[in-house]
Amino acid sequence: MAQTRTLHLTASAPDLERAARLLADGRLVAFPTETVYGLGADARNGRAVAAIYAAKGRPSFNPLIVHLADAAAAQRYVTWSDTAQKLADAFWPGPLTLVLPLKPGHGISGLVTAGLDTLAVRVPAHPAARALLRAFGGPVAAPSANPSGRISPTTAAHVLAGLSGRIAAVVDDGPCPVGLESTIVGLAGEPVLLRPGGVAAERIEAVLGQALARPQDGAAISAPGQLLSHYAPTERVRLDAEAPHPDELFLGFGAMACDLNLSPGGDLAEAAANLFGHLHALDAQGKPIAVAPIPNHGLGAAINDRLRRAAAPRE
Length: 315
Ligand code: TXA
Ligand code: MG
Known about the structure:
The protein has 315 residues and is α/β, with parallel strands linked by helices. The protein is built from ten helices and 14 strands. The strands form two sheets. A ten-stranded mixed β-sheet has the order 1-8-2-3-7-4-6-5-9-10, with helices on both faces. Helix 1 (13-24) packs across helix 6. The chain is globular. Threonylcarbamoyladenylate binds at residues 33, 35-36, 38, 62-65, 95, 97, 99, 113, 116, 118-120, 122, 142-144, 181-182, 184, 194-195, 222-226.
């Protein structure tokens, strides 16, 4: 694809105005959210959305999340429900994505939904993301800003390492505080957990007063993006390791000797925030990675989901 010079913008008001104008011109802009950096395009502009798929090298059957400034904006595109309202009240703005039926006349490019009759919507909490969405004033389709299948970016440097020369700009506002992608809940039928993420499933279940359904692993569910191999470092990843082999780097959790520690104090939120950055840093050393066991409750479920994909056999 054609090379372009990627602008390195700040989160200042004039820079965000410039980023919003680039989006309006159908260009690609990477921006920080509280979860990971997103690669944004105007969701109504099919050519702009096609450019996301091209820049990432992403399989075109994988639908995108639409980012909006507030819940009222989301309701222009999807059929709202009481359950959606409850979850939006509890967790928006924040790291939760809701999948709802598309409204007639929605105007969203078919490339965003990959032909589904539902749309994933999210209202991010990051101040720079919110300011950009307000300045742009429309729906922004944004997958994580990394080449398809690779580790998600939690800094602007990660974005540039993977996509420099392929996108118009990156808005740099430092590291992402949550560090894991949003939790995705399907609300087209009974509430279903389509992807564990930055809001622990237990918290969502507490608000709903019911358990979330869990799609069968590997079943042809309505979350087509859940490819098994994903978040892949260049080298092999081995999970639940009590100790590293001699050739391996060791990614630790809790008090232990290791090359990098997700959280020496055993805090899962801290581990989530460090996960992708530590994987990027170890991967840059060009050796296989062993990972210590991580508890599977709360944010640990999403951390283990990402680690399983990082360790999965590659296609
Ligand atoms: O935190 C996040 O969600 C980040 C930031 C940038 O907002 N975005 C992100 O997007 O993780 P992406 O494209 O890497 O992951 C989107 C996921 C995919 O697994 C996709 O299949 C699923 O959302 N998805 C999108 N639309 C869907 C739909 N209509 N039904 C079911 N799953 C959907
Ligand atoms: Mg992604």
